[in-house]
């Protein structure tokens, strides 16, 4: 892929099509946003993680406030090597058949009624309830058997990236060793098992927003972030944008296969649904004979056919008639109410 970067202070005389820098061990090239800490056996490349970037804009980072703080651990993973679907916390997202914003009471299979438990995957509409004006901390995780990174986006917000935790690698060869130990799964599950249920911080002192190593001064803001395999990303937002917002994988196959969750933010602050607002549902329960009934034939006025230039109001009228205009290889124009072939264009 190619991209053009625009930034303040760039030299105007630099050719944007210049050749790639020559990377060597003395002056390695920097690779932004690696899904791992370093390239194995390649000292010519140096990884720069998103968490290492700093914002040059002064922002107020949402702080921990007692009774006004929520934390969600979301594990974006494909639990099994081959057979399991793409999930968030072992839940394959079921798209609602109605508009969640205007018909929330008609969501037929919310996860609160799914009965999902134990080491199994469920298919339901997974909804996170976020309280208005709370500081909300997300821990995007990637724990499971499928060793691949996931690119996750959040609609409705630009979140602060406060910290990234990577898996454990062999510092010499770069080989993957094990998942990051900052996260504890229920029953101390490991990647040898299919699921990471009810994750939490291994160190209980990290609860209530007290995670070690958070950048609460000048973290970058993004709406999409790469979650490294075996690792995690800590994000924060201020719940001040009422709505139903998707948090999902940016990989189309993963997203369609269920790697998504719906954030229900500040529901009581949503405006009332307008009177006579259209409803939207699927076709379940509708008599198929009605759906496939042949509609009554529609009678239309035939387009006039003539060898005489038709009258017109605008030049567009000249192209709406099937008259003998095939010989005009130029632009038709409406002049004094008659279509003319403008041979000068």
From TrEMBL:
Pfam families: Cu-oxidase_2 (PF07731). Residues 112-265 form the Plastocyanin-like domain. GO terms for cellular component: plasma membrane. Gene3D superfamilies: Cupredoxins - blue copper proteins (2.60.40.420). One of its GO terms (molecular function) is oxidoreductase activity. The keyword RNA-binding does not apply. One of its GO terms (biological process) is iron ion transport. It comes from Magallana gigas. It comes from the Eukaryota. This is Plastocyanin-like domain-containing protein. Keywords: Copper, Metal-binding, Oxidoreductase.
């Amino acid at each position: 892929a190619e991209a053009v970067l625009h930034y303040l202070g760039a030299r105007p005389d630099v050719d944007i099509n210049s050749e790639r820098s020559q990377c060597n061990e003395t002056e390695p090239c920097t690779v932004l946003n690696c899904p791992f800490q370093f390239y194995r056996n390649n000292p010519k490349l140096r990884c720069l993680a998103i968490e290492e970037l700093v914002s040059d804009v002064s922002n107020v980072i949402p702080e921990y406030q007692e009774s006004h703080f929520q934390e969600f651990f979301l594990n974006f993973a494909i639990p099994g090597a081959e057979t399991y679907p793409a999930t968030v916390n072992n839940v394959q997202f079921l798209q609602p058949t109605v508009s969640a914003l205007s018909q929330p009471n008609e969501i037929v299979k919310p996860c609160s009624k799914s009965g999902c438990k134990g080491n199994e995957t469920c298919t339901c509409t997974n909804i996170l309830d976020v309280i208005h004006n709370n500081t909300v901390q997300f821990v995007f995780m990637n724990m499971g058997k499928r060793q691949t990174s996931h690119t996750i986006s959040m609609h409705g917000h630009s979140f602060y990236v406060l910290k990234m935790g990577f898996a454990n690698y062999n510092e010499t060869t770069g080989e993957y060793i094990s998942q990051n130990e900052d996260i504890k799964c229920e029953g101390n599950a490991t990647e040898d098992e299919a699921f990471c249920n009810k994750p939490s911080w291994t160190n209980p002192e990290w609860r209530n927003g007290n995670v070690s190593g958070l950048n609460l001064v000048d973290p970058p803001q993004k709406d999409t972030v790469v979650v490294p395999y075996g690792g995690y990303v800590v994000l924060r937002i201020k719940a001040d944008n009422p709505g139903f917002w998707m948090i999902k994988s940016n990989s189309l196959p993963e997203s369609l296969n269920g790697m998504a969750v719906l954030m229900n933010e500040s529901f009581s602050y949503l405006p009332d649904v307008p009177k006579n607002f259209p409803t939207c549902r699927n076709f379940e329960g509708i008599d198929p004979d009605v759906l496939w009934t042949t509609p009554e034939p529609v009678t239309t006025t035939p387009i006039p056919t003539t060898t005489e230039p038709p009258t017109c109001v605008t030049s567009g009228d000249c192209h709406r008639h099937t008259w003998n205009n095939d010989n005009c290889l130029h632009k038709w124009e409406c002049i004094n109410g008659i279509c003319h072939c403008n041979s000068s264009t």
